[in-house]
Amino acid sequence: MALVARLLVVDDDPRIRHLLELLLSGVRHQVVLADSAKAALEHLRRETPDLILLDIMMPDMDGLTLLGRIRAVRRLAKVPVIMFTGGGKELEGPSRALGADLFLEKPVSGRRLKEVVENLLAREGYVLPGGERVNSLEEVGSRLRHALPEEARFKLLWRKTASRRALLQNLLAKGWTEALLRRILPGEYDLYDLLGHLAFGWPLVPLRERAARVQDPRLASHLEAYLEEKRLPLEGNGLLEELAQALYA
C-alpha cells in the first residue's frame, strides 16, 4: 500500500521547484517548497519531513553545507536526502561523505525521480515518535497499543468530549498524533478510526461515510423514539452527543 509522505524540496530555481511539486504531489505526497537554505532551515526547525530533495548549487548557502547542518541534528540524522545538481559528477563524493542517500545529476526524468523517491520511502518504513522507524503497519499498531488505554476503555473515553480532549493531548505530548498524520494511509479518515484501525484492527470508515451517517434523517427519528421510550426530555440530557459518539462504536 502506498504511503502519503511529506517531502521538502530545496532549490533556488522556481522552474525546478514547480516541476518537482507537480511530479511528486501527483503521486499523493505533500510537497513543501523552500527557495533557499535559510528557508529550508526555518522549516526544519518546526517539521521533520519524510524525505528531502536538495539542490547543491544555491547562492546563500550551498546544499553541501546545508546537508552537513541537517545531519548534525539528531532528529534529522536519518531523514533520507537526495542531492541533485547540474554541477557535475565530481560532487557525488562529498555528498555521500556528508550523508546523502542518493546523488542525481540534472536533468532527471520524472519516472526516474518518482522511482527513487518511492524506493527510499519504502526502505525507510514508518517513522514513530522519537524517530524510531519500523517496517510494517503491524509494528506501528503494536507500539500504538502501548500508548492507548485498553480497547473498551478507549471507546468510552472517546465518547466524552472532556476525556477525548485529554486523550488527544496525551497522544500529542507523546508525539503520536504527529507521527500518524505525517505518514497516514491513503484516503481521508477520522483520527479515531485511524487509531482504532492501527491499534485494534477496526475497519476504516471514510469521512464521507461518517458524515452521511450523521446526516441520515433516520438518526433523529431513532433518537426521538428512544427518548420517548425512556420518558426522557429531548434537551439537556446529553444523549444527543452520546448517540452521535455511538456511531464510532
Question: Treating each run of at least 4 consecutive H or I residues as one helix, how many helices?
Answer: 13
Query: Which range does the strand content fall in?
Result: 5-15%
Helix fraction bin? 40-55%
| SSE succession | EHEHEHEHEHEEHHHHHHHH
- Low-confidence segments, given as residue ranges, are 232-249
The span between the termini is 26 Å
Oligomeric nature of the chains = single chain
Which superfamily, in CATH terms, is the homologous superfamily of the largest domain?
Response regulator
Widest sheet: strand ordering: 2-1-3-4-5
CATH topology of the largest domain, by name, is Rossmann fold
Overall morphology: elongated
Rg calculated over all Cα atoms? 23 Å
Major beta sheet summary: 5 strands, parallel
Short description:
With 249 residues, this protein is α/β, with parallel strands linked by helices. 54% of the residues lie in helices and 11% in strands. It folds into two domains: 6-124, Rossmann fold, CATH 3.40.50.2300; 135-246, no CATH class.
Explain what the structure shows.
It is a single chain. The chain has 249 residues and is of the alpha/beta class. It has two domains: 6-124, Response regulator (Rossmann fold); 135-246, no CATH class. Helix content is 54%, strand content 11%. It contains 13 helices and seven strands. The chain has helices spanning 14-25, 37-46, 63-71, 92-97, 110-124, 137-147, 151-159, 161-174, 176-182, 191-200, 207-215, 217-230, 239-246; strands spanning 6-10, 30-34, 51-55, 81-85, 102-105, 126-127, 133-134. The chain has a five-stranded parallel beta sheet with strand order 2-1-3-4-5. It has a two-stranded antiparallel sheet with strand order 6-7. A hairpin with a 5-residue loop joins strand 6 (126-127) and strand 7. Helix 6 crosses helix 10 (191-200). The longest helix is centred in the middle third of the chain and has 15 residues, at 110-124. It is elongated and about 60 Å long.
